[in-house]
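Can't attach files on this board, so I'm pasting raw text. These are the components:
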Amino acid sequence: MLQLQSISLVHFRNYVQSDFSFEERVIALCGKNGVGKTNFLDAIYYLSFTKSYFSRPESQSVHHGLQGMRIEGDYLLNNKKINIRCIVRETNRKEFYFNADEYKRFSEHIGKIPCVMIAPDDVALITGNSEERRKFIDTILSQCNTNYLQWLIDYNKILQQRNSLLKAAAEHNLLDESLLETLDDQLSEKGELIFKERKEFLSHFIVSVKKQYQYIAQKNDHISIEYDSQFLTASMKELLQSNRQRDLYLQRTGCGIHKDDITFLMKGQSFKTLASQGQRKSLLFALKLAEFEVLKQQKHITPILLLDDVFEKLDAERMHHLLHKVCVEENGQVFITDTNRERLAESLKEIKVPFQLIEL
Amino acid sequence: MQLPSSLLENAVAEFSKLPGVGKKTALRLVLHLLKQDVNEVQHFGETISKMRRDIKFCQRCHNISDGDICSICSNSMRNQHAICVVENIRDVIAIESTQQFNGTYHILGGIISPLDGIGPDQLKIESLIHRIEKEVVEELIFALSPNIQGDTTIYYIQKKMSHLSCRITTIARGIAFGGELEYADEMTLARSLANRLPVQQYVK
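---
Top answer:
C-alpha coordinates for the assembled complex are below.
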Protein backbone atom coordinates (compact mmCIF):
# COMPACT_ATOMS: atom_id res chain seq x y z
CA MET A 1 0.00 0.00 0.00
CA LEU A 2 1.44 3.32 -1.09
CA GLN A 3 0.13 6.54 0.32
CA LEU A 4 1.34 10.11 0.22
CA GLN A 5 0.79 11.55 3.69
CA SER A 6 1.99 15.07 3.28
CA ILE A 7 3.68 17.31 0.79
CA SER A 8 5.50 20.57 1.18
CA LEU A 9 6.11 22.94 -1.71
CA VAL A 10 8.58 25.81 -1.61
CA HIS A 11 8.93 28.09 -4.63
CA PHE A 12 7.38 25.47 -6.91
CA ARG A 13 5.49 27.12 -9.78
CA ASN A 14 2.84 29.37 -8.20
CA TYR A 15 3.38 28.06 -4.65
CA VAL A 16 5.66 30.20 -2.52
CA GLN A 17 5.41 28.13 0.61
CA SER A 18 2.61 25.63 1.21
CA ASP A 19 2.13 22.46 3.21
CA PHE A 20 -0.62 19.94 2.78
CA SER A 21 -1.40 16.75 4.63
CA PHE A 22 -3.65 13.97 3.43
CA GLU A 23 -5.73 11.77 5.67
CA GLU A 24 -7.95 10.00 3.18
CA ARG A 25 -7.27 7.74 0.28
CA VAL A 26 -9.26 9.90 -2.10
CA ILE A 27 -8.28 13.56 -2.26
CA ALA A 28 -10.37 16.07 -4.16
CA LEU A 29 -8.80 19.37 -5.12
CA CYS A 30 -10.89 22.26 -6.28
CA GLY A 31 -10.29 25.88 -7.11
CA LYS A 32 -10.67 28.43 -9.84
CA ASN A 33 -8.60 28.61 -13.00
CA GLY A 34 -4.99 29.39 -12.34
CA VAL A 35 -4.85 28.63 -8.61
CA GLY A 36 -2.43 25.77 -9.22
CA LYS A 37 -4.43 22.54 -9.35
CA THR A 38 -2.35 21.07 -12.14
CA ASN A 39 0.85 22.31 -10.53
CA PHE A 40 -0.16 20.50 -7.38
CA LEU A 41 -0.48 17.20 -9.24
CA ASP A 42 2.70 17.96 -11.11
CA ALA A 43 4.57 18.27 -7.81
CA ILE A 44 3.44 14.78 -6.84
CA TYR A 45 4.46 13.52 -10.27
CA TYR A 46 7.81 15.26 -9.83
CA LEU A 47 8.56 13.28 -6.70
CA SER A 48 7.94 10.02 -8.56
CA PHE A 49 9.77 10.77 -11.78
CA THR A 50 12.38 13.36 -10.72
CA LYS A 51 10.99 15.73 -13.31
CA SER A 52 7.87 17.57 -14.34
CA TYR A 53 5.11 15.87 -16.29
CA PHE A 54 5.22 18.74 -18.73
CA SER A 55 8.42 18.98 -20.68
CA ARG A 56 9.84 22.36 -19.88
CA PRO A 57 13.19 23.67 -18.67
CA GLU A 58 13.91 23.20 -14.99
CA SER A 59 14.05 26.94 -14.42
CA GLN A 60 10.35 27.19 -15.28
CA SER A 61 9.46 24.88 -12.41
CA VAL A 62 10.67 27.56 -10.05
CA HIS A 63 8.30 30.31 -8.91
CA HIS A 64 8.56 33.28 -11.21
CA GLY A 65 11.00 35.84 -9.85
CA LEU A 66 12.34 33.57 -7.11
CA GLN A 67 15.35 31.29 -7.03
CA GLY A 68 15.65 27.66 -6.09
CA MET A 69 12.82 25.35 -5.09
CA ARG A 70 12.05 22.40 -2.95
CA ILE A 71 9.43 19.67 -2.95
CA GLU A 72 9.24 17.25 -0.09
CA GLY A 73 6.83 14.36 0.38
CA ASP A 74 6.25 11.88 3.19
CA TYR A 75 5.00 8.53 2.01
CA LEU A 76 3.81 5.42 3.74
CA LEU A 77 4.82 2.34 1.77
CA ASN A 78 3.83 -1.01 3.28
CA ASN A 79 3.80 0.61 6.72
CA LYS A 80 7.27 2.05 6.31
CA LYS A 81 7.80 5.78 6.29
CA ILE A 82 9.62 7.19 3.29
CA ASN A 83 10.74 10.75 2.77
CA ILE A 84 11.40 11.96 -0.76
CA ARG A 85 12.98 15.36 -1.21
CA CYS A 86 13.87 17.30 -4.30
CA ILE A 87 15.87 20.49 -4.09
CA VAL A 88 16.77 22.70 -7.01
CA ARG A 89 19.47 25.09 -5.83
CA GLU A 90 19.84 28.69 -6.91
CA THR A 91 22.42 27.51 -9.43
CA ASN A 92 19.79 25.19 -10.99
CA ARG A 93 21.61 22.18 -9.59
CA LYS A 94 19.12 19.47 -8.74
CA GLU A 95 19.43 17.17 -5.74
CA PHE A 96 17.18 14.23 -5.06
CA TYR A 97 16.98 12.38 -1.79
CA PHE A 98 15.38 9.10 -0.76
CA ASN A 99 15.21 9.37 3.02
CA ALA A 100 18.71 10.62 3.84
CA ASP A 101 20.44 9.23 0.76
CA GLU A 102 21.13 11.42 -2.19
CA TYR A 103 20.78 9.81 -5.61
CA LYS A 104 23.77 9.82 -7.89
CA ARG A 105 21.63 8.82 -10.84
CA PHE A 106 18.04 10.03 -10.95
CA SER A 107 17.02 7.09 -13.11
CA GLU A 108 17.45 4.82 -10.09
CA HIS A 109 14.50 6.48 -8.44
CA ILE A 110 12.00 5.97 -11.22
CA GLY A 111 9.64 3.13 -10.42
CA LYS A 112 10.15 3.24 -6.67
CA ILE A 113 7.07 5.40 -6.15
CA PRO A 114 4.85 4.31 -9.03
CA CYS A 115 2.45 6.97 -10.21
CA VAL A 116 0.18 7.50 -13.21
CA MET A 117 -0.99 10.93 -14.31
CA ILE A 118 -3.87 11.64 -16.66
CA ALA A 119 -4.07 15.19 -17.99
CA PRO A 120 -6.24 16.70 -20.74
CA ASP A 121 -3.24 17.20 -23.03
CA ASP A 122 -2.71 13.45 -23.10
CA VAL A 123 -5.37 13.21 -25.80
CA ALA A 124 -2.39 13.61 -28.14
CA LEU A 125 -1.81 9.93 -27.44
CA ILE A 126 -4.87 9.24 -29.55
CA THR A 127 -4.95 12.18 -31.94
CA GLY A 128 -1.22 12.81 -32.27
CA ASN A 129 1.27 11.02 -34.50
CA SER A 130 2.60 7.53 -33.99
CA GLU A 131 5.64 8.71 -32.06
CA GLU A 132 3.47 9.49 -29.03
CA ARG A 133 2.09 5.97 -28.97
CA ARG A 134 5.49 4.33 -29.36
CA LYS A 135 6.80 6.46 -26.51
CA PHE A 136 3.87 5.43 -24.34
CA ILE A 137 4.46 1.71 -24.99
CA ASP A 138 8.24 2.04 -24.69
CA THR A 139 7.95 3.78 -21.33
CA ILE A 140 5.85 0.96 -19.93
CA LEU A 141 8.00 -1.79 -21.43
CA SER A 142 11.23 -0.22 -20.20
CA GLN A 143 9.90 -0.35 -16.69
CA CYS A 144 8.93 -4.01 -17.01
CA ASN A 145 11.97 -5.33 -18.84
CA THR A 146 15.39 -3.83 -18.16
CA ASN A 147 16.82 -5.26 -21.38
CA TYR A 148 14.20 -3.53 -23.46
CA LEU A 149 15.53 -0.03 -22.90
CA GLN A 150 19.05 -1.15 -23.83
CA TRP A 151 17.79 -2.78 -27.03
CA LEU A 152 15.96 0.37 -27.92
CA ILE A 153 19.01 2.56 -27.31
CA ASP A 154 21.17 0.21 -29.37
CA TYR A 155 18.59 0.07 -32.13
CA ASN A 156 18.46 3.84 -32.40
CA LYS A 157 22.24 4.11 -32.50
CA ILE A 158 22.52 1.56 -35.30
CA LEU A 159 19.68 3.26 -37.13
CA GLN A 160 21.55 6.58 -36.97
CA GLN A 161 24.68 4.90 -38.32
CA ARG A 162 22.72 3.32 -41.15
CA ASN A 163 21.09 6.60 -42.09
CA SER A 164 24.46 8.35 -42.10
CA LEU A 165 25.81 5.66 -44.36
CA LEU A 166 22.88 6.11 -46.75
CA LYS A 167 23.49 9.87 -46.81
CA ALA A 168 27.23 9.45 -47.38
CA ALA A 169 26.54 6.93 -50.13
CA ALA A 170 24.33 9.42 -51.92
CA GLU A 171 26.87 12.21 -51.57
CA HIS A 172 29.84 10.25 -52.87
CA ASN A 173 27.80 8.11 -55.23
CA LEU A 174 29.49 5.07 -53.80
CA LEU A 175 28.03 2.47 -51.51
CA ASP A 176 29.91 -0.05 -49.44
CA GLU A 177 27.46 -2.93 -49.79
CA SER A 178 29.03 -5.16 -47.16
CA LEU A 179 28.97 -2.38 -44.59
CA LEU A 180 25.28 -1.80 -45.26
CA GLU A 181 24.68 -5.52 -44.91
CA THR A 182 26.58 -5.58 -41.64
CA LEU A 183 24.47 -2.74 -40.28
CA ASP A 184 21.31 -4.44 -41.58
CA ASP A 185 22.22 -7.57 -39.65
CA GLN A 186 22.83 -5.61 -36.47
CA LEU A 187 19.64 -3.62 -36.91
CA SER A 188 17.54 -6.70 -37.60
CA GLU A 189 18.82 -8.48 -34.54
CA LYS A 190 17.74 -5.69 -32.19
CA GLY A 191 14.62 -4.93 -34.19
CA GLU A 192 13.35 -8.49 -33.95
CA LEU A 193 13.91 -8.53 -30.20
CA ILE A 194 11.97 -5.30 -29.76
CA PHE A 195 9.22 -6.45 -32.10
CA LYS A 196 8.76 -9.71 -30.24
CA GLU A 197 8.57 -7.90 -26.93
CA ARG A 198 6.07 -5.33 -28.19
CA LYS A 199 3.90 -7.96 -29.83
CA GLU A 200 3.84 -10.13 -26.74
CA PHE A 201 3.09 -7.18 -24.49
CA LEU A 202 0.41 -5.65 -26.70
CA SER A 203 -1.48 -8.92 -27.06
CA HIS A 204 -2.32 -8.63 -23.35
CA PHE A 205 -2.38 -4.89 -23.16
CA ILE A 206 -4.96 -4.38 -25.89
CA VAL A 207 -7.35 -6.79 -24.20
CA SER A 208 -6.89 -4.85 -20.99
CA VAL A 209 -7.52 -1.49 -22.69
CA LYS A 210 -10.74 -2.77 -24.23
CA LYS A 211 -11.88 -4.11 -20.87
CA GLN A 212 -11.27 -0.73 -19.24
CA TYR A 213 -13.12 1.06 -22.01
CA GLN A 214 -16.05 -1.30 -21.70
CA TYR A 215 -16.14 -0.55 -17.99
CA ILE A 216 -16.08 3.22 -18.33
CA ALA A 217 -18.53 3.42 -21.24
CA GLN A 218 -20.58 0.33 -20.33
CA LYS A 219 -20.49 -0.53 -24.02
CA ASN A 220 -17.69 -1.21 -26.45
CA ASP A 221 -18.53 1.51 -29.03
CA HIS A 222 -17.27 -0.99 -31.65
CA ILE A 223 -13.70 -0.07 -30.90
CA SER A 224 -10.88 -2.22 -32.12
CA ILE A 225 -7.22 -1.70 -31.36
CA GLU A 226 -4.43 -3.20 -33.38
CA TYR A 227 -0.69 -3.36 -33.24
CA ASP A 228 0.48 -2.11 -36.58
CA SER A 229 3.94 -3.23 -37.58
CA GLN A 230 5.61 -4.05 -40.86
CA PHE A 231 7.05 -7.17 -39.26
CA LEU A 232 3.73 -8.88 -38.82
CA THR A 233 4.08 -10.09 -42.41
CA ALA A 234 7.81 -10.21 -43.11
CA SER A 235 11.04 -10.39 -41.18
CA MET A 236 13.08 -7.25 -40.70
CA LYS A 237 15.91 -8.60 -42.79
CA GLU A 238 13.68 -9.30 -45.77
CA LEU A 239 12.14 -5.87 -45.52
CA LEU A 240 15.48 -4.09 -45.37
CA GLN A 241 16.54 -6.11 -48.38
CA SER A 242 13.49 -5.29 -50.47
CA ASN A 243 13.45 -1.64 -49.43
CA ARG A 244 17.11 -1.05 -50.11
CA GLN A 245 16.75 0.89 -53.36
CA ARG A 246 14.09 3.11 -51.84
CA ASP A 247 16.19 3.70 -48.72
CA LEU A 248 19.17 4.65 -50.84
CA TYR A 249 17.06 7.07 -52.79
CA LEU A 250 15.44 8.68 -49.75
CA GLN A 251 18.67 8.49 -47.71
CA ARG A 252 16.89 7.12 -44.69
CA THR A 253 15.56 3.84 -43.39
CA GLY A 254 11.93 3.40 -44.35
CA CYS A 255 11.17 0.22 -42.50
CA GLY A 256 11.75 -0.93 -38.98
CA ILE A 257 10.23 -0.89 -35.54
CA HIS A 258 10.59 2.88 -35.53
CA LYS A 259 7.58 2.90 -37.86
CA ASP A 260 5.35 0.83 -35.56
CA ASP A 261 2.01 2.21 -34.51
CA ILE A 262 -1.13 1.31 -32.68
CA THR A 263 -4.28 1.87 -34.69
CA PHE A 264 -7.56 2.69 -33.08
CA LEU A 265 -10.63 1.91 -35.11
CA MET A 266 -14.27 2.58 -34.47
CA LYS A 267 -16.76 0.67 -36.56
CA GLY A 268 -13.92 -0.10 -38.90
CA GLN A 269 -13.05 3.56 -39.46
CA SER A 270 -10.33 5.74 -38.03
CA PHE A 271 -11.13 6.48 -34.40
CA LYS A 272 -9.39 9.84 -34.59
CA THR A 273 -11.84 11.23 -37.13
CA LEU A 274 -15.02 9.48 -36.07
CA ALA A 275 -14.97 9.58 -32.28
CA SER A 276 -16.48 12.34 -30.17
CA GLN A 277 -14.46 14.29 -27.61
CA GLY A 278 -15.95 12.20 -24.82
CA GLN A 279 -15.17 8.94 -26.57
CA ARG A 280 -11.59 10.08 -27.14
CA LYS A 281 -11.27 10.87 -23.50
CA SER A 282 -12.78 7.53 -22.55
CA LEU A 283 -10.20 5.75 -24.66
CA LEU A 284 -7.45 7.84 -23.13
CA PHE A 285 -8.59 6.78 -19.66
CA ALA A 286 -8.77 3.17 -20.80
CA LEU A 287 -5.16 3.34 -22.04
CA LYS A 288 -3.90 4.97 -18.89
CA LEU A 289 -5.81 2.64 -16.61
CA ALA A 290 -4.38 -0.32 -18.50
CA GLU A 291 -0.94 1.18 -17.84
CA PHE A 292 -1.94 1.50 -14.19
CA GLU A 293 -2.82 -2.22 -14.12
CA VAL A 294 0.48 -3.24 -15.69
CA LEU A 295 2.50 -1.17 -13.21
CA LYS A 296 0.50 -2.58 -10.34
CA GLN A 297 1.20 -6.15 -11.41
CA GLN A 298 4.86 -5.49 -12.09
CA LYS A 299 5.72 -3.55 -8.97
CA HIS A 300 3.23 -5.16 -6.58
CA ILE A 301 2.39 -1.65 -5.41
CA THR A 302 -0.78 0.17 -6.42
CA PRO A 303 0.41 3.36 -8.11
CA ILE A 304 -0.80 6.78 -7.04
CA LEU A 305 -3.30 8.06 -9.57
CA LEU A 306 -3.37 11.74 -10.53
CA LEU A 307 -6.48 12.83 -12.42
CA ASP A 308 -6.39 16.33 -13.81
CA ASP A 309 -9.62 17.90 -14.98
CA VAL A 310 -11.38 14.60 -15.49
CA PHE A 311 -14.90 15.99 -15.46
CA GLU A 312 -14.36 17.90 -18.62
CA LYS A 313 -16.01 16.29 -21.64
CA LEU A 314 -17.20 13.06 -20.03
CA ASP A 315 -20.91 12.47 -19.48
CA ALA A 316 -22.22 11.88 -15.95
CA GLU A 317 -22.63 8.18 -16.47
CA ARG A 318 -19.12 7.56 -17.75
CA MET A 319 -17.76 9.80 -15.02
CA HIS A 320 -19.55 7.75 -12.41
CA HIS A 321 -18.12 4.49 -13.74
CA LEU A 322 -14.65 5.93 -13.95
CA LEU A 323 -14.70 7.24 -10.39
CA HIS A 324 -16.14 3.99 -9.13
CA LYS A 325 -13.34 2.13 -10.85
CA VAL A 326 -10.46 4.21 -9.55
CA CYS A 327 -11.77 5.06 -6.08
CA VAL A 328 -13.72 1.98 -5.04
CA GLU A 329 -12.43 -1.00 -6.96
CA GLU A 330 -8.80 -0.03 -6.74
CA ASN A 331 -7.22 0.49 -3.37
CA GLY A 332 -4.61 3.05 -4.36
CA GLN A 333 -4.45 6.72 -3.52
CA VAL A 334 -6.23 9.04 -5.94
CA PHE A 335 -5.94 12.80 -6.46
CA ILE A 336 -8.71 14.45 -8.49
CA THR A 337 -8.99 18.08 -9.53
CA ASP A 338 -11.96 20.09 -10.71
CA THR A 339 -12.98 23.70 -10.89
CA ASN A 340 -16.44 23.06 -9.50
CA ARG A 341 -16.49 22.27 -5.82
CA GLU A 342 -20.10 21.07 -5.68
CA ARG A 343 -19.84 18.84 -8.70
CA LEU A 344 -16.70 17.21 -7.34
CA ALA A 345 -18.15 16.65 -3.88
CA GLU A 346 -21.45 15.34 -5.26
CA SER A 347 -19.78 12.86 -7.56
CA LEU A 348 -17.61 11.48 -4.80
CA LYS A 349 -20.51 11.25 -2.34
CA GLU A 350 -22.42 9.32 -4.95
CA ILE A 351 -19.91 6.50 -4.99
CA LYS A 352 -19.88 6.46 -1.17
CA VAL A 353 -16.19 6.78 -0.61
CA PRO A 354 -14.64 8.80 2.19
CA PHE A 355 -12.72 11.71 0.73
CA GLN A 356 -10.86 14.83 1.73
CA LEU A 357 -11.67 18.09 0.01
CA ILE A 358 -8.93 20.65 -0.33
CA GLU A 359 -9.77 24.09 -1.64
CA LEU A 360 -6.82 25.83 -3.21
CA MET B 1 42.21 37.56 -23.35
CA GLN B 2 44.24 40.64 -24.21
CA LEU B 3 47.93 39.88 -24.78
CA PRO B 4 50.70 42.47 -25.22
CA SER B 5 52.41 40.72 -28.12
CA SER B 6 51.10 39.09 -31.27
CA LEU B 7 53.99 36.59 -31.15
CA LEU B 8 52.82 35.53 -27.72
CA GLU B 9 49.28 35.36 -28.96
CA ASN B 10 50.21 33.04 -31.84
CA ALA B 11 52.09 30.74 -29.51
CA VAL B 12 49.15 30.60 -27.10
CA ALA B 13 46.78 29.85 -29.98
CA GLU B 14 49.00 26.97 -31.12
CA PHE B 15 49.24 25.46 -27.65
CA SER B 16 45.52 25.66 -27.05
CA LYS B 17 44.95 23.46 -30.11
CA LEU B 18 46.36 20.55 -28.10
CA PRO B 19 43.84 18.17 -26.52
CA GLY B 20 42.96 19.07 -22.92
CA VAL B 21 44.69 22.44 -23.09
CA GLY B 22 42.66 25.60 -22.70
CA LYS B 23 43.60 29.25 -23.17
CA LYS B 24 44.84 29.72 -19.61
CA THR B 25 46.98 26.58 -19.51
CA ALA B 26 48.40 27.51 -22.90
CA LEU B 27 49.41 30.92 -21.60
CA ARG B 28 51.07 29.36 -18.57
CA LEU B 29 53.07 27.02 -20.79
CA VAL B 30 54.12 29.78 -23.14
CA LEU B 31 55.20 32.07 -20.29
CA HIS B 32 57.18 29.18 -18.87
CA LEU B 33 58.99 28.73 -22.19
CA LEU B 34 59.66 32.46 -22.28
CA LYS B 35 61.60 32.18 -19.04
CA GLN B 36 63.82 29.43 -20.49
CA ASP B 37 67.07 29.83 -22.29
CA VAL B 38 66.69 30.52 -26.05
CA ASN B 39 68.72 27.43 -26.98
CA GLU B 40 66.65 25.21 -24.80
CA VAL B 41 63.42 26.36 -26.40
CA GLN B 42 65.02 25.90 -29.78
CA HIS B 43 65.77 22.30 -28.83
CA PHE B 44 62.21 21.84 -27.60
CA GLY B 45 60.77 23.00 -30.90
CA GLU B 46 63.17 20.96 -32.97
CA THR B 47 62.47 17.78 -31.02
CA ILE B 48 58.80 18.12 -31.76
CA SER B 49 59.14 18.89 -35.44
CA LYS B 50 61.71 16.12 -35.83
CA MET B 51 59.36 13.70 -34.16
CA ARG B 52 56.59 14.56 -36.58
CA ARG B 53 58.88 14.61 -39.62
CA ASP B 54 60.90 11.48 -39.05
CA ILE B 55 58.46 9.13 -37.42
CA LYS B 56 57.33 6.22 -39.55
CA PHE B 57 54.45 3.84 -39.45
CA CYS B 58 55.11 0.14 -39.72
CA GLN B 59 54.19 -1.02 -43.20
CA ARG B 60 52.85 -4.26 -41.85
CA CYS B 61 50.81 -3.33 -38.78
CA HIS B 62 50.72 0.51 -38.89
CA ASN B 63 52.26 0.81 -35.46
CA ILE B 64 54.66 3.66 -34.74
CA SER B 65 58.12 2.74 -35.81
CA ASP B 66 61.59 4.10 -36.41
CA GLY B 67 62.09 1.96 -39.50
CA ASP B 68 59.89 0.47 -42.17
CA ILE B 69 58.93 -2.44 -39.94
CA CYS B 70 58.22 -1.86 -36.23
CA SER B 71 60.03 -3.56 -33.37
CA ILE B 72 57.10 -5.86 -32.61
CA CYS B 73 56.78 -7.12 -36.17
CA SER B 74 60.52 -7.64 -36.59
CA ASN B 75 60.90 -9.50 -33.32
CA SER B 76 61.45 -13.14 -34.26
CA MET B 77 60.58 -14.28 -30.72
CA ARG B 78 56.96 -13.25 -31.22
CA ASN B 79 54.28 -15.46 -32.68
CA GLN B 80 53.79 -14.18 -36.19
CA HIS B 81 50.66 -16.28 -36.73
CA ALA B 82 48.45 -14.43 -34.30
CA ILE B 83 47.18 -10.92 -35.06
CA CYS B 84 45.51 -8.73 -32.49
CA VAL B 85 43.29 -6.11 -34.15
CA VAL B 86 43.10 -2.84 -32.21
CA GLU B 87 41.70 0.61 -32.76
CA ASN B 88 44.74 2.79 -32.09
CA ILE B 89 48.29 2.91 -30.79
CA ARG B 90 47.20 3.57 -27.22
CA ASP B 91 45.52 0.15 -27.24
CA VAL B 92 48.78 -1.49 -28.31
CA ILE B 93 50.55 0.12 -25.38
CA ALA B 94 47.80 -1.04 -23.02
CA ILE B 95 47.93 -4.63 -24.25
CA GLU B 96 51.73 -4.69 -24.30
CA SER B 97 51.90 -3.64 -20.69
CA THR B 98 49.85 -6.71 -19.70
CA GLN B 99 52.77 -8.83 -21.02
CA GLN B 100 50.20 -11.49 -21.87
CA PHE B 101 50.22 -11.28 -25.62
CA ASN B 102 53.07 -12.57 -27.68
CA GLY B 103 51.71 -12.14 -31.18
CA THR B 104 51.61 -9.21 -33.58
CA TYR B 105 49.17 -6.34 -33.95
CA HIS B 106 47.16 -4.63 -36.60
CA ILE B 107 46.15 -1.05 -35.96
CA LEU B 108 42.97 0.00 -37.73
CA GLY B 109 43.26 3.67 -36.89
CA GLY B 110 39.65 3.92 -35.73
CA ILE B 111 36.37 2.03 -35.85
CA ILE B 112 33.58 2.15 -38.40
CA SER B 113 31.10 4.91 -37.65
CA PRO B 114 29.32 6.45 -40.64
CA LEU B 115 27.79 8.97 -38.24
CA ASP B 116 31.25 10.42 -37.65
CA GLY B 117 32.11 10.09 -41.32
CA ILE B 118 34.39 7.12 -40.78
CA GLY B 119 33.85 4.39 -43.34
CA PRO B 120 35.86 1.20 -43.93
CA ASP B 121 38.05 2.87 -46.57
CA GLN B 122 39.46 5.33 -44.04
CA LEU B 123 40.64 2.43 -41.90
CA LYS B 124 43.40 -0.09 -42.50
CA ILE B 125 40.99 -2.91 -43.23
CA GLU B 126 42.09 -3.56 -46.79
CA SER B 127 45.69 -4.09 -45.67
CA LEU B 128 44.52 -6.41 -42.88
CA ILE B 129 42.68 -8.65 -45.34
CA HIS B 130 45.69 -8.53 -47.61
CA ARG B 131 47.92 -9.51 -44.73
CA ILE B 132 45.77 -12.50 -43.81
CA GLU B 133 45.74 -13.65 -47.41
CA LYS B 134 49.50 -13.38 -47.75
CA GLU B 135 50.77 -14.52 -44.38
CA VAL B 136 49.99 -17.69 -42.47
CA VAL B 137 47.54 -16.48 -39.85
CA GLU B 138 46.11 -18.92 -37.37
CA GLU B 139 44.14 -16.57 -35.17
CA LEU B 140 42.70 -13.11 -35.46
CA ILE B 141 41.92 -11.55 -32.09
CA PHE B 142 39.65 -8.53 -31.98
CA ALA B 143 40.41 -6.20 -29.08
CA LEU B 144 37.98 -3.37 -29.90
CA SER B 145 35.81 -1.24 -27.65
CA PRO B 146 32.70 -3.11 -26.52
CA ASN B 147 30.14 -0.88 -28.20
CA ILE B 148 27.96 -0.88 -31.29
CA GLN B 149 30.58 0.62 -33.58
CA GLY B 150 33.10 -1.95 -32.35
CA ASP B 151 30.63 -4.72 -33.17
CA THR B 152 29.94 -3.24 -36.59
CA THR B 153 33.67 -3.25 -37.31
CA ILE B 154 34.07 -6.86 -36.20
CA TYR B 155 31.09 -8.07 -38.27
CA TYR B 156 32.27 -6.11 -41.27
CA ILE B 157 35.79 -7.54 -41.22
CA GLN B 158 34.42 -11.01 -40.60
CA LYS B 159 32.21 -10.66 -43.66
CA LYS B 160 35.13 -9.45 -45.74
CA MET B 161 37.27 -12.48 -44.86
CA SER B 162 34.60 -15.16 -45.11
CA HIS B 163 36.61 -16.81 -47.88
CA LEU B 164 39.61 -17.26 -45.58
CA SER B 165 39.95 -19.99 -43.01
CA CYS B 166 41.27 -18.40 -39.87
CA ARG B 167 40.12 -18.57 -36.30
CA ILE B 168 38.43 -15.33 -35.25
CA THR B 169 38.10 -14.49 -31.59
CA THR B 170 37.33 -11.44 -29.50
CA ILE B 171 38.45 -10.43 -26.03
CA ALA B 172 36.14 -11.49 -23.18
CA ARG B 173 33.64 -9.07 -21.73
CA GLY B 174 32.67 -9.24 -18.10
CA ILE B 175 33.40 -8.25 -14.56
CA ALA B 176 36.45 -6.06 -14.10
CA PHE B 177 39.36 -7.56 -12.22
CA GLY B 178 39.45 -6.69 -8.53
CA GLY B 179 35.99 -5.13 -8.82
CA GLU B 180 33.12 -5.53 -6.42
CA LEU B 181 30.27 -7.59 -7.79
CA GLU B 182 27.54 -5.40 -6.36
CA TYR B 183 28.91 -2.32 -8.11
CA ALA B 184 29.04 -3.94 -11.54
CA ASP B 185 26.40 -2.65 -13.91
CA GLU B 186 23.62 -5.07 -14.77
CA MET B 187 24.55 -5.56 -18.40
CA THR B 188 28.13 -6.52 -17.61
CA LEU B 189 27.01 -8.85 -14.86
CA ALA B 190 24.39 -10.47 -17.10
CA ARG B 191 26.98 -11.00 -19.79
CA SER B 192 29.46 -12.48 -17.33
CA LEU B 193 26.83 -14.95 -16.22
CA ALA B 194 25.92 -15.89 -19.77
CA ASN B 195 29.58 -16.49 -20.71
CA ARG B 196 30.72 -18.05 -17.46
CA LEU B 197 33.96 -20.03 -17.27
CA PRO B 198 34.77 -23.51 -15.97
CA VAL B 199 36.68 -23.11 -12.70
CA GLN B 200 39.71 -25.07 -13.96
CA GLN B 201 40.29 -22.44 -16.63
CA TYR B 202 39.60 -19.61 -14.28
CA VAL B 203 42.19 -20.62 -11.68
CA LYS B 204 44.88 -20.82 -14.33
